[in-house]
Amino acid sequence: LDWKEDMNFKLKNGETIHINVFSLVYSYSRFKVFYLSLSRKRDVLLHLLDQAFETAGGVPKALKTDNMKTVMDEPRTARSKGKVNARFEQFAKDYGFETKPCTAGHPWSKGKVENPMKALDELFAYNGKLDLYGLCLILKEINERLNASVHTTTGKIPILHMEKEKDFLQALPDAQVRNLYRIPTLSVKVDPQSMISYKGNKYSVDPRHLGKKLDLQAYEGYLYLYDNTELAAVHAIADKKWNYQEEHYTALTVYALKD
Protein backbone atom coordinates (compact mmCIF):
# COMPACT_ATOMS: atom_id res chain seq x y z
CA LEU A 1 0.00 0.00 0.00
CA ASP A 2 1.41 3.39 -0.98
CA TRP A 3 0.68 6.77 -2.57
CA LYS A 4 2.27 8.62 -5.46
CA GLU A 5 1.96 11.98 -3.78
CA ASP A 6 1.36 15.65 -4.50
CA MET A 7 1.64 15.79 -8.27
CA ASN A 8 0.76 19.13 -9.87
CA PHE A 9 -1.54 18.63 -12.84
CA LYS A 10 -2.97 21.30 -15.14
CA LEU A 11 -6.57 20.70 -16.25
CA LYS A 12 -7.79 21.68 -19.71
CA ASN A 13 -9.59 24.71 -18.23
CA GLY A 14 -6.24 26.07 -17.03
CA GLU A 15 -6.76 25.19 -13.36
CA THR A 16 -3.84 23.48 -11.59
CA ILE A 17 -4.73 20.81 -9.05
CA HIS A 18 -2.67 18.63 -6.71
CA ILE A 19 -3.36 14.94 -7.28
CA ASN A 20 -2.37 11.75 -5.50
CA VAL A 21 -2.58 8.18 -6.76
CA PHE A 22 -3.51 5.44 -4.31
CA SER A 23 -1.73 2.17 -5.13
CA LEU A 24 -2.35 -1.33 -3.81
CA VAL A 25 -0.35 -4.25 -5.23
CA TYR A 26 -1.16 -7.88 -4.42
CA SER A 27 2.07 -9.70 -3.66
CA TYR A 28 1.64 -13.06 -5.40
CA SER A 29 -0.04 -11.98 -8.66
CA ARG A 30 1.26 -8.38 -8.78
CA PHE A 31 -2.35 -7.33 -9.50
CA LYS A 32 -2.59 -3.56 -9.07
CA VAL A 33 -5.37 -1.19 -8.06
CA PHE A 34 -4.90 2.54 -8.69
CA TYR A 35 -7.26 5.36 -7.69
CA LEU A 36 -6.88 9.09 -8.17
CA SER A 37 -7.52 11.26 -5.13
CA LEU A 38 -7.18 14.94 -4.30
CA SER A 39 -6.27 14.21 -0.68
CA ARG A 40 -4.66 11.52 1.45
CA LYS A 41 -6.92 11.94 4.47
CA ARG A 42 -7.57 8.87 6.61
CA ASP A 43 -11.27 8.64 5.71
CA VAL A 44 -10.41 8.74 2.00
CA LEU A 45 -7.68 6.11 2.47
CA LEU A 46 -10.05 3.69 4.25
CA HIS A 47 -12.75 4.19 1.62
CA LEU A 48 -10.27 3.51 -1.19
CA LEU A 49 -8.90 0.43 0.56
CA ASP A 50 -12.41 -0.98 0.86
CA GLN A 51 -12.99 -0.29 -2.86
CA ALA A 52 -9.63 -1.86 -3.78
CA PHE A 53 -10.39 -5.05 -1.82
CA GLU A 54 -13.72 -5.30 -3.64
CA THR A 55 -12.10 -4.70 -7.04
CA ALA A 56 -9.46 -7.36 -6.42
CA GLY A 57 -11.96 -9.85 -5.03
CA GLY A 58 -10.77 -10.24 -1.46
CA VAL A 59 -8.73 -9.10 1.53
CA PRO A 60 -5.10 -10.21 2.03
CA LYS A 61 -4.02 -11.71 5.36
CA ALA A 62 -1.31 -9.04 5.73
CA LEU A 63 -0.88 -5.51 4.36
CA LYS A 64 2.59 -4.00 3.95
CA THR A 65 2.45 -0.23 4.17
CA ASP A 66 4.59 2.87 4.13
CA ASN A 67 4.88 4.82 7.41
CA MET A 68 2.16 7.23 6.29
CA LYS A 69 0.64 9.35 9.06
CA THR A 70 -2.87 8.11 8.27
CA VAL A 71 -1.69 4.62 9.29
CA MET A 72 1.13 5.13 11.78
CA ASP A 73 1.25 7.28 14.92
CA GLU A 74 4.93 6.38 15.24
CA PRO A 75 7.03 5.12 12.29
CA ARG A 76 8.69 1.74 12.29
CA THR A 77 12.47 2.09 12.38
CA ALA A 78 15.43 -0.24 12.74
CA ARG A 79 15.10 0.22 16.53
CA SER A 80 11.33 0.45 16.94
CA LYS A 81 8.35 -1.56 15.65
CA GLY A 82 6.35 1.67 15.43
CA LYS A 83 2.74 2.24 16.44
CA VAL A 84 -0.33 1.84 14.21
CA ASN A 85 -2.98 4.47 14.94
CA ALA A 86 -6.20 3.32 16.60
CA ARG A 87 -8.50 4.08 13.64
CA PHE A 88 -6.47 2.05 11.15
CA GLU A 89 -5.91 -0.73 13.67
CA GLN A 90 -9.69 -1.06 14.08
CA PHE A 91 -10.12 -1.07 10.30
CA ALA A 92 -7.54 -3.87 10.01
CA LYS A 93 -9.29 -5.84 12.74
CA ASP A 94 -12.69 -5.44 11.06
CA TYR A 95 -11.32 -6.54 7.67
CA GLY A 96 -9.16 -9.30 9.13
CA PHE A 97 -5.64 -8.38 8.04
CA GLU A 98 -2.35 -7.72 9.85
CA THR A 99 -0.65 -4.36 9.30
CA LYS A 100 3.06 -4.65 8.48
CA PRO A 101 4.75 -1.23 8.21
CA CYS A 102 7.98 -0.99 6.23
CA THR A 103 11.10 0.18 8.00
CA ALA A 104 11.52 3.93 7.53
CA GLY A 105 14.41 4.75 5.19
CA HIS A 106 14.33 1.35 3.46
CA PRO A 107 12.34 2.00 0.23
CA TRP A 108 13.49 -1.34 -1.22
CA SER A 109 11.22 -3.11 1.29
CA LYS A 110 8.12 -1.91 -0.61
CA GLY A 111 9.55 -2.24 -4.12
CA LYS A 112 6.54 -4.22 -5.40
CA VAL A 113 4.51 -1.04 -5.00
CA GLU A 114 7.09 1.57 -5.95
CA ASN A 115 8.25 -0.05 -9.20
CA PRO A 116 4.88 0.18 -11.01
CA MET A 117 4.50 3.72 -9.69
CA LYS A 118 6.98 4.80 -12.37
CA ALA A 119 4.36 3.98 -15.02
CA LEU A 120 2.16 6.70 -13.54
CA ASP A 121 4.51 9.36 -14.91
CA GLU A 122 2.62 8.75 -18.16
CA LEU A 123 -0.15 10.93 -16.72
CA PHE A 124 1.96 14.03 -17.34
CA ALA A 125 1.68 13.47 -21.10
CA TYR A 126 -1.90 14.70 -20.69
CA ASN A 127 -1.04 17.83 -18.72
CA GLY A 128 -3.40 20.62 -19.80
CA LYS A 129 -5.47 18.32 -22.03
CA LEU A 130 -8.02 16.71 -19.69
CA ASP A 131 -10.58 17.44 -17.01
CA LEU A 132 -10.62 15.43 -13.77
CA TYR A 133 -12.99 12.85 -15.24
CA GLY A 134 -10.70 12.31 -18.22
CA LEU A 135 -7.71 12.00 -15.92
CA CYS A 136 -9.51 9.28 -13.93
CA LEU A 137 -10.21 7.39 -17.18
CA ILE A 138 -6.56 7.58 -18.29
CA LEU A 139 -5.44 6.25 -14.90
CA LYS A 140 -7.91 3.37 -15.28
CA GLU A 141 -6.47 2.60 -18.74
CA ILE A 142 -2.91 2.52 -17.33
CA ASN A 143 -4.08 0.29 -14.48
CA GLU A 144 -5.82 -2.17 -16.82
CA ARG A 145 -2.86 -2.24 -19.22
CA LEU A 146 -0.40 -3.08 -16.44
CA ASN A 147 -2.67 -5.84 -15.13
CA ALA A 148 -2.99 -7.33 -18.62
CA SER A 149 0.76 -7.21 -19.44
CA VAL A 150 3.40 -9.81 -18.63
CA HIS A 151 5.16 -8.86 -15.39
CA THR A 152 8.92 -8.55 -15.90
CA THR A 153 9.78 -10.34 -12.63
CA THR A 154 7.18 -13.12 -12.41
CA GLY A 155 6.74 -13.69 -16.15
CA LYS A 156 2.99 -13.91 -15.45
CA ILE A 157 0.02 -11.75 -16.44
CA PRO A 158 -1.32 -10.24 -13.17
CA ILE A 159 -5.03 -10.33 -14.02
CA LEU A 160 -4.78 -14.05 -14.87
CA HIS A 161 -2.48 -14.90 -11.96
CA MET A 162 -4.91 -13.10 -9.63
CA GLU A 163 -7.43 -15.91 -10.11
CA LYS A 164 -5.04 -18.21 -8.23
CA GLU A 165 -4.33 -15.64 -5.53
CA LYS A 166 -8.06 -15.22 -4.83
CA ASP A 167 -8.06 -18.73 -3.32
CA PHE A 168 -5.90 -17.34 -0.49
CA LEU A 169 -7.80 -14.10 0.10
CA GLN A 170 -10.41 -13.46 2.75
CA ALA A 171 -13.97 -12.31 2.14
CA LEU A 172 -14.85 -8.69 2.80
CA PRO A 173 -16.87 -8.02 5.97
CA ASP A 174 -20.63 -7.55 5.75
CA ALA A 175 -22.19 -4.28 4.55
CA GLN A 176 -22.88 -3.07 8.08
CA VAL A 177 -19.16 -3.08 8.86
CA ARG A 178 -18.08 -1.74 5.45
CA ASN A 179 -20.47 1.20 5.72
CA LEU A 180 -18.49 2.43 8.73
CA TYR A 181 -15.58 3.16 6.40
CA ARG A 182 -17.14 3.90 3.01
CA ILE A 183 -17.95 7.42 1.89
CA PRO A 184 -21.77 7.76 1.93
CA THR A 185 -23.46 7.01 -1.38
CA LEU A 186 -26.69 8.60 -2.62
CA SER A 187 -28.93 7.25 -5.38
CA VAL A 188 -29.88 9.93 -7.96
CA LYS A 189 -31.92 9.66 -11.15
CA VAL A 190 -30.88 11.14 -14.50
CA ASP A 191 -33.69 13.37 -15.79
CA PRO A 192 -34.76 13.94 -19.45
CA GLN A 193 -32.25 16.84 -19.71
CA SER A 194 -29.46 14.39 -18.83
CA MET A 195 -28.98 16.06 -15.43
CA ILE A 196 -28.95 14.90 -11.83
CA SER A 197 -29.84 17.01 -8.80
CA TYR A 198 -27.60 17.57 -5.79
CA LYS A 199 -28.49 20.07 -3.05
CA GLY A 200 -30.78 22.01 -5.40
CA ASN A 201 -28.31 22.31 -8.26
CA LYS A 202 -28.16 20.36 -11.53
CA TYR A 203 -25.14 18.48 -12.93
CA SER A 204 -24.85 16.89 -16.36
CA VAL A 205 -24.00 13.33 -17.41
CA ASP A 206 -23.72 11.66 -20.79
CA PRO A 207 -27.19 11.00 -22.31
CA ARG A 208 -26.52 7.26 -22.48
CA HIS A 209 -27.38 7.33 -18.76
CA LEU A 210 -30.81 8.91 -19.36
CA GLY A 211 -33.47 7.54 -17.02
CA LYS A 212 -30.96 5.54 -14.97
CA LYS A 213 -30.29 5.72 -11.27
CA LEU A 214 -26.66 6.57 -10.55
CA ASP A 215 -24.64 6.33 -7.35
CA LEU A 216 -23.32 9.68 -6.14
CA GLN A 217 -20.43 10.25 -3.74
CA ALA A 218 -19.49 13.78 -2.64
CA TYR A 219 -16.04 14.41 -1.19
CA GLU A 220 -12.95 16.57 -1.67
CA GLY A 221 -15.16 19.27 -3.23
CA TYR A 222 -16.25 17.05 -6.13
CA LEU A 223 -19.19 14.86 -7.12
CA TYR A 224 -18.34 11.37 -8.38
CA LEU A 225 -21.18 9.66 -10.26
CA TYR A 226 -21.18 5.93 -10.97
CA ASP A 227 -23.32 3.69 -13.17
CA ASN A 228 -22.80 0.46 -11.22
CA THR A 229 -18.96 0.37 -11.07
CA GLU A 230 -18.39 2.61 -14.13
CA LEU A 231 -17.39 6.19 -13.42
CA ALA A 232 -20.04 8.22 -15.28
CA ALA A 233 -19.01 11.81 -14.47
CA VAL A 234 -16.98 14.03 -12.16
CA HIS A 235 -18.11 17.58 -11.29
CA ALA A 236 -16.70 20.26 -9.04
CA ILE A 237 -19.40 21.07 -6.47
CA ALA A 238 -20.70 24.50 -7.48
CA ASP A 239 -23.12 27.22 -6.38
CA LYS A 240 -24.54 27.53 -9.91
CA LYS A 241 -27.99 26.15 -10.65
CA TRP A 242 -27.00 24.52 -13.95
CA ASN A 243 -23.65 22.76 -14.39
CA TYR A 244 -23.18 21.37 -17.91
CA GLN A 245 -19.96 19.87 -19.19
CA GLU A 246 -19.36 20.66 -22.86
CA GLU A 247 -19.09 17.04 -24.00
CA HIS A 248 -22.38 16.17 -22.27
CA TYR A 249 -24.15 19.13 -23.91
CA THR A 250 -22.80 18.12 -27.33
CA ALA A 251 -23.80 14.48 -26.85
CA LEU A 252 -27.29 15.51 -25.71
CA THR A 253 -27.71 17.72 -28.80
CA VAL A 254 -26.72 14.82 -31.08
CA TYR A 255 -29.06 12.50 -29.16
CA ALA A 256 -31.97 14.97 -29.52
CA LEU A 257 -31.37 15.38 -33.28
CA LYS A 258 -31.43 11.60 -33.75
CA ASP A 259 -34.82 11.48 -32.00
Automatic annotation (TrEMBL):
GO terms for molecular function: nucleic acid binding. It comes from the Bacteria. Residues 1-166 form the Integrase catalytic domain. PANTHER family: TRANSPOSASE, TRANSPOSASE RV3428C-RELATED. One of its GO terms (biological process) is DNA integration. Pfam families: Mu-transpos_C_2, rve. SUPFAM superfamilies: Ribonuclease H-like (SSF53098). Belongs to the transposase IS21/IS408/IS1162 family. This is Transposase.
